[in-house]
Amino acid sequence: PAKIYANEGIAQVLFFEGDEECKISYADKKGKYQKQDRIMLPRL
Q1: Is residue 39 one of the residues assigned to a domain?
Q2: Whose CA is closest to 25, among 33, 15, 17?
Q3: Cα 33 to Cα 3, 11, 20, 24, 41, distances in angstroms
Q4: In total, how many domains does the chain have?
Q5: What is the pLDDT of residue 17?
Q6: What is the pLDDT of residue 12?
Q7: Integer Rg of the chain from CA
Q8: What is the residue range of 27's domain?
C-alpha cells in the first residue's frame, strides 16, 4: 500500500479534442453509461 497525504498529486488528467463526430454520443445513450439506470457505488 502507498501513503497519500493531503495536497499531494497522485494523478494527471488529459483532455483531447477529436477530429470528427463520435459514432454514439451521450445524447444517443440518453445520458447513461454502460446502460446503467441508477448511480453505481464503487466496488472494492
Answers
A1: no
A2: 33
A3: 32, 23, 21, 12, 13
A4: 1
A5: 92
A6: 92
A7: 17
A8: 10-34
Residue 42, in any domain of the structure: no
Distance CA 42, CA 8 (A): 23
- Give the span between the Cα atoms of 33 and 26, in whole angstroms: 8
Which grid coordinates are listed for 37? Answer: 439506470
CA gap 11, 40 in Å, rounded = 22
pTM over 0.70: no
Which cell is 26 given?
Answer: 451521450
Condensed to tens digits (0 to 9), the pLDDT of residues 2-44 reads 888 998 888 899 999 999 988 888 778 776 677 777 888 887 7
Three cell numbers written together for 25? 454520443
Please name the amino acid found at residue 1. Answer: P
